[in-house]
Structures are given as C-alpha cells and as structure tokens.
Amino acid sequence: MKILALDSSGLVASVALTDDDVLVAEYTTNYKKTHSQTLLPMLDELKRMVELDLHTVDVIAVAAGPGSFTGLRIGAATAKGLGLALNAPIAPVPTVDALAWNLYGSDRLVCPLMDARRNQVYTGIYAFERDEAGGCRQNTLLEQCALSVEEVAGRLNGLGREVIFLGDGVPVYRELLAERVKVPFSFAPACCNRQRAALVACLGAVYAREGKLVDADRFAPEYLRMSQAERERMEAADSQKEAAGAQRRPS
C-alpha cells in the first residue's frame, strides 16, 4: 500500500512516501518560509526524485490537527485536492499522536508539546506497549488537547512515571517544566523531536487497516480551539450584547 503523507501542522513542513513498511522518500524542513511556499514544491521534488506516478498512491495521510490554523488549512487543502484528483481516500491522523511516534517503542511515557500560544500547549500523554506480534501498541493516556504547562505537569506527576518530552513547545517552556514536573524527565534529541510526515504515513497505515478513512470531500481539520479571528468576533458580539442590555436597563 502506497501512502503519501503531509504534515504542515506546526513550524515543520514535511512530505513523505511509504510503500508497505518501507519509507521510500521524505522531505522535511524547519525554516522560516511559509508552508504555502514550501509544501507543494517539496511534494513536486519528492515526486520527481522517486519517479512517482501519483495515480499509484492508495491513501493520502495528513496531520489533521491540532496545530497552526494556517498550516492546517494549507495541509488540508493540499490533501483534499490530491484526494479528489486521484480518487484516493484520506487518513486524517491526529497531529499529537503522530508526533509521539517519534519515540515509538519507548519504555517511558511520551509527552509531545506543541506551542499553542496564550500560555497553552497542544499535548497528549502516550505509552507504548509491546504486542504479541513483536510490534508496539500506542496507548493513549491523555487524548490530544490544549492545556497549560502547569496542568500537563500535574497530570504527569499524578501518573508517577518517567516521561520524555518533545515538540516545539519544549524550548518555550523548558524552565517551567523543570520547575513543575516532579517525576524523572528528559527531552528528545534533535533527530526525533519535531513533526515528520513519515510518522503521519505510519499512523495512516494503521488507520487504513482499521478502516478509519474518509472521502476527500468530507475531510476537515480538527482545530481544538477557535482561531483568533473567531475569538475576537465572539468577544465583540458579547460586548455588543452587554452594551444593548445596559441601554435597556432602567437607570
């Protein structure tokens, strides 16, 4: 099964192609250019380098959120366009779940941290357990969500197990983590601490086997939080309601 995978959910832009259990190609950048500048050129370069006929792709896997609102929209639009053009289904892979797969097989708890701004992170807590087939099963102890670092630390302290952190939220909150986390902890090295499309492809294969695929025209990213523009509209509407109520109240 050929899976073409995309991840533009955070600072990283990444494209990968897997064929069954083989990673054929991967192109990942973590630079200041926008995903609108990088994602399609990276896909085109990957296609050229491995002489990929896009019509042989079976599944389009995409990091479906949470993450950067703009990045998710770019990834979703690209995945939907490919899916519609190729008549290929989409595997919508939770971003934080895929990020945790960087540490597949770890005997410690795995806690990805993506900077969500406003003093929050997109996070989850995962444990990998070996199965009878010789592989590992990803157990979700805390489903991906938006929390403060203090709340994350409290959850981990309550579990009482050693944990390893990864993600772009680590450099932002490293000092706060050191202050609040009371269980043994460490940080993943540079080779495995950011999003990778290859991991999205791996989980996309799991989703395909489990029948968790959607048609391209039905796919939509999962934001978890409202965008800044939506929050501002809601706050403006609330302010207008309060002003209107004050005008109606007798003096």
UniProtKB/TrEMBL annotation:
Pfam families: TsaD. The lineage of its organism: Bacteria, Bacillati, Bacillota, Clostridia, Lachnospirales. Keywords: Acyltransferase, Transferase. GO terms for biological process: tRNA threonylcarbamoyladenosine modification. This is tRNA (Adenosine(37)-N6)-threonylcarbamoyltransferase complex dimerization subunit type 1 TsaB. Residues 25-231 form the Gcp-like domain. Residues 230-251 are annotated as: Disordered. The keyword Magnesium does not apply. GO terms for cellular component: cytosol. It is an enzyme of class 2 (transferase). InterPro entries: ATPase_NBD, Gcp-like_dom, T6A_TsaB. GO terms for molecular function: tRNA N(6)-L-threonylcarbamoyladenine synthase activity. SUPFAM superfamilies: Actin-like ATPase domain (SSF53067). Its EC number is 2.3.1.234.
